[in-house]
Amino acid sequence: MKSFKIVGRFKDESQLDTKEHPEGAVAFKEPKSAKTLSLIGSLISVVILLLLWLMIVTVHSDFKFSIWGFLLAYALIVPHEFLHALCFRGDVKMYTALTKGMFFVHSTEDMTKLRYVMMSLCPNICFGFIPLILYFIFPQLNILGTLGMMSVAFGAGDYINVFNALTQMPRGALTYLSGFHSYWYNPKA
User: Fold this and answer.
1) Core-most of 7, 71, 92, 164, by most CB within 10 Å?
2) Integer distance in angstroms from the first to the last C-alpha of the chain?
3) Which domain covers residue 132, as residue numbers?
């Protein structure tokens, strides 16, 4: 990344950088507002949390929820966004919207579908799936089970982005952000 700037509180879309759309750019079919995205993300997060909880207690009935794992998951929210930022080559800005339950990074850089998916999943793998897998190997480490479960659930917004990229972008297309919305285009067109 060229530069990283913590902007602070996200008030509305006018704060976000925009980009001139390349010829043939197509907007992703996605929620039209941050509020709607936050609501959908929250619902997905709760479903993921419940499913992971059921999976964990089914495999390890003696699982005990760890307050330290819970607190660590919350402490990793900013590093989660920083891992996203590290995947960009251009300028990146970080915003907070605590009342909407959101932290996010923003850049108008073009990305391939694979790089976009990897950027979206990177922190969820590092802070969620790896600790969860380690918990299943070492079940005495309840802190890892709780950390993994919470961190995987916190990635709901990222999973929405991955789903949109995988289902809407054709092979060879590039994606970018402009304002609050994602777009894709075929650079060979």
Assistant:
1) 92
2) 28
3) 4-10+26-185
